[in-house]
Design a protein that fits this description.
Structural class: alpha+beta
CATH class: Mainly Beta
Largest sheet: 11 strands, mixed
Strand content: over 45%
Radius of gyration: 20 Å
CATH superfamily: Coagulation Factor XIII, subunit A, domain 1
Shape: globular
Helix content: 10-25%
CATH architecture: Distorted Sandwich
Distance between the termini: 12 Å
Number of domains: 1
Length: 312
């Protein structure tokens, strides 16, 4: 059923895809080898490019979640500046295995109040904190060779994409598992994001999930944290290239926490509601220890996962 839905979505996007393909054909002379062509095809893939508009929140965002502390965050957001792209391409026969690493300079913005406030009241902000950090996001791509043209850009196609994972160099917080529960009862469980692949070719198994408009998807996150306090775990989704105003941010609710002698094993839950505009999207989970948001002297510790999906 989801494969059929994906085919319907691809039909809807037919003219857009054609125009993108024409743009590639007219400018492909600049790609002199397979590696350059593969990098360009990955950059232009809609299921891949929809990650960054949700990873880069551009500014502080309302997150609609309960907090309780001496400092009360009103809005929290991160601005991510892409500073480096690296594509490690390994061609074996008619397949290419690509390890993609993007490096970002991040700025975490925290608009906060020193007094308790009523949720939704943006007039109480009396301080704006900014914290700088560096993060790398990695994902794996499998390409398949479809031709032997003189123009390398015409010879390759994205076959499957893994989930992206990134973060700072910290072992104090780590997402261990993500579980998605759909309206029809289907469940997806992911423990190794860069080793979990979705097909980009219709008809193959494990297609990118396709949801209806305004459909609810329950997202459960299992993570381990070095800290007993409730972490600041958020879900950002809905934006796509050129349409950042559809971006939504929600704070996860803590379901349970158990200390195993070394780390606190925690479960968080939130609901993603899809937008009404069809197309490829990414949901991004950002997990930070509580003090990153509530203490102006604490450095940024971050673990991020992305989840591609489509709206029909």
């Amino acid at each position: 059923m989801r494969i059929t839905a994906l085919l319907m979505l691809l039909s809807f996007l037919f003219f857009t895809a054609c125009s993108q393909e024409d743009a590639l054909v007219t400018s492909d002379d600049e790609f002199s080898n397979d590696q350059e062509a593969i990098a360009k095809l990955i950059e232009d893939d809609e299921a891949v490019q929809s990650f960054e508009p949700n990873f880069n929140e551009e500014d502080v965002m309302s997150f609609y979640g309960k907090v309780a502390a001496e400092i009360f965050p009103v809005r929290v957001g991160q601005k991510m500046i892409l500073t480096d792209r690296n594509y490690d391409v390994n061609i074996i026969g008619d397949s290419a295995f690509v390890s993609v690493t993007h490096t970002f300079e991040g700025k975490l913005f925290i608009a906060a109040s020193y007094d308790e406030f009523t949720p939704g009241d943006s007039n109480v902000v009396d301080t704006l904190l900014q914290k700088d950090f560096i993060t790398q996001v990695k994902r794996n791509i499998i390409m398949v060779k479809i031709g032997n043209h003189e123009r390398p850009i015409l010879n390759w196609k994205v076959k499957s994409v893994s989930l992206p994972e990134g973060g700072t160099l910290s072992e104090n917080i780590e997402i261990k598992k993500m579980t998605l529960t759909f309206n029809d009862g289907e469940v997806i469980e992911i423990t190794e994001p860069t080793e979990y692949y979705f097909s980009r070719i219709p008809g193959f198994n494990n297609q990118i999930p396709v949801f209806g408009r305004n459909e609810d998807v329950i997202v459960n996150i299992e993570l381990q944290s070095a800290y007993a306090d409730t972490d600041f775990v958020s879900l950002t989704w809905g934006a796509f290239r050129g349409m950042p105003h559809h971006r939504v941010k929600r704070k996860f609710d803590l379901v349970s926490s158990e200390f195993d002698g070394t780390y606190y094993q925690k479960i968080y839950q939130q609901t993603l509601k899809t937008h009404f505009i069809p197309g490829f999207r990414h949901a991004v989970i950002n997990a930070m220890p509580r003090q990153v948001v509530f203490d102006d002297a604490s450095e940024v510790e971050l673990n991020s996962w992305g989840m591609p999906y489509a709206v029909r």
